[in-house]
Design a protein that fits this description.
This protein has four helices and 15 strands. By secondary structure, it is an alpha+beta fold. It comes from Aequorivita viscosa.
């Protein structure tokens, strides 16, 4: 009888440990830091996992066991019906490292936990941007993305930060624009544009100062990103706005 109770107790302990580990994984995890993989999103639910990457969308069921995640009943872009990841969480449980186990071990890019795609975007650039609202119809700016030079203007610790995809300020903006144009096809250069993704609380004088710096470069068109009912920035980073 004692052995049976001990066995039941051990099962209960392991079950609780597994549940706690699973709770840490539940949520949305993102990466956009690796050119080989592009944008990746893992959506962990209680009993299912949805994965988005450049190949498409994949559904599966999942369980966690110690440092491994076991996928079963996979339905998507792979012929495999089962898959095993080894995983490691960062100390704050906000970073996730995954390796696909098999004949060859494949290391995936580090994933960041976020509420949604826009929250991940803000964490990725390191500043908070509360987009302004514009009621009238907006133009899609970010597509195709090879025509767009992004400028991010928002706040970190109550300080205004203005940065690009290449640096933490605008000190080297002219050189960055020159390099950007060199990598663009000649027939497309007249269509290049700035996409100014800026917080609604930036003052008019601050915005004028930012735009003046942009106008001193060889890119002539400036668009500013806004949000309205037609946009869904929380789950899909398709920028919409209007020419300034």
């Amino acid at each position: 009888m004692k052995n049976i109770l001990t066995y039941i107790l051990l099962i209960f302990i392991f079950s609780c440990a597994s549940t706690k580990q699973k709770e840490k994984l539940i949520g949305n995890w993102y990466s956009n830091s690796d050119d080989n993989y592009g944008f990746i999103e893992f959506q962990f639910y209680n009993d299912s996992l949805i994965v988005y990457d450049k190949l498409g969308k994949e559904f599966s069921q999942w369980e966690v066991n110690e440092n491994k995640i076991q996928l079963t009943n996979i339905n998507g872009f792979t012929n495999k019906k089962e898959l095993t990841y080894s995983y490691k969480l960062g100390k704050s449980n906000e970073l996730l490292n995954l390796k696909i186990l098999g004949d060859t071990i494949i290391q995936l890019p580090e994933l960041v936990k976020a509420k949604n795609t826009y929250d991940f975007f803000q964490k990725n650039i390191g500043i908070i941007i509360d987009l302004p609202i514009k009621e009238n119809e907006l133009t899609q700016i970010g597509f195709p993305d090879n025509l767009t030079f992004n400028i991010y203007a928002g706040f970190s610790n109550n300080s205004l930060i203005v940065k690009t995809d290449f640096s933490s300020d605008l000190k080297n903006l002219e050189k960055e624009v020159t390099d950007f144009k060199k990598n663009s096809r000649e027939e497309l250069k007249t269509f290049l544009r700035f996409n100014l993704i800026a917080d609604k609380n930036i003052t008019e004088s601050q915005m004028d100062s930012i735009k003046d710096q942009l106008k001193r470069t060889s890119i002539e068109r400036i668009f500013r990103t806004y949000k309205n009912k037609q946009t869904d920035y929380e789950n899909n980073l398709n920028w919409f706005g209007q020419k300034e």
